[in-house]
Amino acid sequence: MLPRFGAAPGVRFLSSIISQRLRHVSAPTLQKSASKLAGPSSSQLQQKRHGTISVFGPFDPPKQLTFQQVEERVLKAVKAWDRFPQDRVNLLSMEARFIEDLGFDSLDHVEIVMALEDEFGFEIPDKDAERLKTPRDVFKYICEREDVYE
């Protein structure tokens, strides 16, 4: 029987009900029930194991960009923009001005900056984005930000 001294009224009530119900149950039956409640043994756990976790790594450090890679990726991001006019592909160069030469408006400029952010994986603040008038400006900005020197 469970101790009743110092227990809360709810616990005393519960212990009296349990002791009344368990009077007719034999000790071996209680031990079996208790072992089932305790959970599987360690040998049962090892039998149920389906695989192991493999740890991989260490991760390679990011590769250093080159001037050529940055230039190619800038032009690729601008060309891949979904609203880039296909009749102006031949006008696209590193010195082509987005608004004057390629005919983009301010909203187009914002979308191109977003495409460049996606391509290079970092955010370009609005203050800096306003200064990016040509792909060459974007190239210089990225090279400066990513420490590209070759």
From TrEMBL:
Q: What are the record's GO terms for cellular component?
A: mitochondrion
Q: Sorted alphabetically, which Pfam families does this protein's record hold?
A: PP-binding
Q: Which SUPFAM superfamilies does the UniProt entry name for this protein?
A: ACP-like (SSF47336)
What does the record list as coiled-coil region(s)? none
| Record's keyword terms, sorted | Fatty acid biosynthesis, Fatty acid metabolism, Lipid biosynthesis, Lipid metabolism, Phosphopantetheine, Phosphoprotein
Answer yes or no on keyword Lipid biosynthesis. Answer: yes
List each copy of the Carrier domain by range: 68-146
Q: Name one GO molecular function term.
A: acyl binding
Superkingdom classification of source: Eukaryota
In terms of NCBIfam families, this protein maps to: acyl_carrier, PRK00982.1-2
- Indicate the family of this protein: Belongs to the acyl carrier protein (ACP) family.
What is the purpose of this protein?
A: Carrier of the growing fatty acid chain in fatty acid biosynthesis.
Q: Which HAMAP family match?
A: Acyl_carrier (MF_01217)
Q: What is this protein called?
A: Acyl carrier protein
> Taxonomy-wise, where does this protein's organism fall, top ranks first?
Eukaryota, Metazoa, Ecdysozoa, Nematoda, Chromadorea
